[in-house]
Design a protein that fits this description.
This protein is mainly α and 76 residues long. Helix content is 75%, strand content 0%. The protein is built from four helices and no strands. Helix 3 runs antiparallel to helix 4. The longest helix has 25 residues. It is elongated, with a radius of gyration of 17 Å. It starts with a helix and ends in a 6-residue tail after the last helix.
Length: 76
């Protein structure tokens, strides 16, 4: 809401906005599935779970910032 109304509404097509989250969703699901196989293979431990959580959060934040810069207003 805060990103769309003031900045993206005039610059983004509905088609682009509808497809925008899917690459992030695919990465999230692959991370969960592959991470669980890894944890089953080596034995689940809290440090490994924390590392996966930190990596997932960092990748998601980077993807979010990249999306925001795509629709950022042009500098005058």
């Amino acid at each position: 809401f805060a990103n769309y109304l003031p900045r993206e509404r005039a610059r983004a097509a509905v088609k682009d906005l509808m497809g925008q989250p899917y690459p992030r969703i695919i990465v999230m699901h692959l991370t969960i599935i592959l991470g669980m196989f890894f944890l089953l293979a080596v034995g689940a431990s809290l440090p490994i779970l924390l590392i996966f959580t930190a990596l997932k959060t960092a990748v998601d934040l980077g993807s979010h910032l990249k999306e925001r810069s795509k629709f950022a207003p042009a500098c005058p």
